Amino acid sequence: MSISPIRRPFVPSRDEPAVALHGFTRRFGQTTILQDLDLDIAPGEFVALLGRSGSGKTTLLRTLAGLDPADGQAVRTPSARAVVFQEPRLLPWKPVWKNVTLGLAGPSPRAQAEAALREVGLGHRLDAWPATLSGGEAQRAALARALVREPHLLLLDEPFAALDALTRLKMHELVLALWRAHRPAVLLVTHDVDEAIALSDRVLVLKDGRIGAEERIEAERPRRIEGALQAVRARLLGHLGAEPPQAVAERRASRRAEVA
Ligand SMILES: Nc1ncnc2c1ncn2[C@@H]1O[C@H](COP(=O)(O)OP(=O)(O)OP(=O)(O)O)[C@@H](O)[C@H]1O
Ligand SMILES: [Mg+2]
Fold it and tell me: Shortest CA distance to 88 belongs to which of 152, 151, 149, 133?
């Protein structure tokens, strides 16, 4: 994994953020994708990032993962980082346990893989080939591969988007359980407003190259989206440019009243 040029070693501290990005700009040719962006994530904080397609969410995540050059700008992240993408990206010619510990130096990689796979409920599939896993199992293996690196920062780029609704809900529970057990800072990129509200401490909206809106969510988990959280959902949908469901319902009701 390449590393951004300016980076101080990560020392976990309550006072210092796990992620600090100030005035960050990223261009592709003549097109500016991220402009003067500020982002701080506290150690152990779970942050969700929403934004329209093409707004630069993956670009930001790749920067934090050290996968893209930072062009000399300061990008502060922990050195222990791991990424899970929308697709599991397992090597089909290696059994699951070898995928999990790929590139990892350690005295007993199989035991490390087994511990991580057990945590995600795949302790019985160590020697399975990736092609024999279901979509949900493959994503759990990808989570185990992230976990085994003991990340202080876990970067998730739409990791549940390709899963069916029930598997996605189970993955939410799993991610929360892993987060509680290991307490990494998390940045979850998602298109799903309800997923963002259900999981995170803070929801950010990427807009015009910077963080355009922020909602802090303090409700206890597991969360039902009702009362104040419905208002949060409506505001987030509004920031994304979608009409809040309440407004749609009210507009429809008033149209019905006009017709009657
Ligand atoms: N390597 C690249 N070279 C040129 N343009 C790029 C490159 N990577 C991304 N882009 C452009 O930058 C913009 C932001 O892309 P990015 O993948 O970050 O969006 P996103 O918010 O993750 O979108 P989505 O929700 O569809 O995944 C897009 O217009 C994309 O075409
Ligand atoms: Mg993306």
Answer: 133
Cβ < 6 Å from ligand 1: which residues? 28, 33, 51, 53-59
Distance CA 106, CA 201 (A): 34
The tens digit of pLDDT for each residue in 89-123 reads 999 999 999 999 998 888 899 999 999 999 999 99
Q: Which residues of 222-232 are buried (b: 16+ CB within 10 A; e: fewer)?
A: eeeeeeebeeb
Nearest Cα to Cα of residue 213 among 49, 57, 21: 49
CA of 173 to the centre of ligand 1 (A): 29
Record the tokens describing residue 38, joined without a space: 């500020």
For ligand 1, atom 18, name the residue with the nearest CA.
56
199 closest CA partner among 222, 216, 181, 178: 222
**Rounded-to-integer distance, Cα 60 and Cα 189, Å:** 10
Domains defined along the chain, listed by start: 19-222 (3.40.50.300)
Measured between alpha carbons, how far is 98 from 112 in angstroms, rounded to an integer?
A: 10
d(CA 110, CA 113): 5
Q: What would the pLDDT profile of 161-190 be if each residue is shown by its tens digit?
A: 999 999 999 999 999 999 999 999 999 999
Instruction: Name 247's Cβ contacts closer than 8 Å, sequence gap at least 6.
Output: 234
Instruction: Tell me the angle at which helices 135-147 and 109-119 cross, rounded to the nearest 10 degrees.
Output: 130
Ligand 1 atom nearest the C-alpha of 189 is 22
